[in-house]
Amino acid sequence: xxxxxxxxxxxxxxxxxxxxxxFHTRMCRDYANGQNCFVAGVNPKKAGEDFEGIPIxxxxxxxxxxxGATVSVIYVPPAGAAAAIWEAVEAELDLAICITxxxxxxxxLEVRNKMKQREAAGGKKTLxxxxxxxxxxTPEEIKIGIMPGHIHKPGRVGVVSRSGTLTYEAVAxxxxxxxxxxxxxxxxxxxxxxxxHIDVMRLxxxxxxxxxxxxIGEIGGPDEADAARWCKEHMKKPVVGFIAGVTAPAGKxxx
Length: 255
Known about the structure:
13 strands; Rossmann fold; alpha/beta; single chain; 255 residues; 7-stranded mixed sheet
């Protein structure tokens, strides 16, 4: 078992016709069960075409209806990425994973508020991972994002991190020691994002195939402290925490 994604997950790539989207869709498709998992792409201007056999649709809603996909990964450039997130929400997907870095804060504020309003009105809740994140992987089942698949090893330790690079470092060291991972999740370092450390810790806490968790954070913001307080009260499994950084230079925004 795993959290968020597994070998049965079906994925849409938003931004599949761009250079970044094509490269990482290819890498993800070629990892483990990716041939079965990556079933659609979206680009309104290229609907009806395909990318190396993956059909391209005009909208996320159409792609989901035609393929049964429940997850999207977003490589859309910053100016259009928030709109791409909202399109995934309106299509009622289970999870949207936004890799894009540099989305304007105003755009993310607007889409986050719309997501909250939709949920408050009784609409389906779509989980958001990112933006500015490496994605998530269930080793030897599926990877969605930009992480190097070869460093991961299946096992029973969960990993969650704000930093993509530190995620890779932790995973690589675990694998070298023969310690496999149930899932590794990069939540991203942007000030306005979706899933927080505490949300992922809750998922790992309830996952019967995760025995322990490594939580990696960075200085700046209260999220890691909030998760630590929650873990102290509720976590049933061992947790190892690491915060990168010592001080934030005056006037410099971290993350």
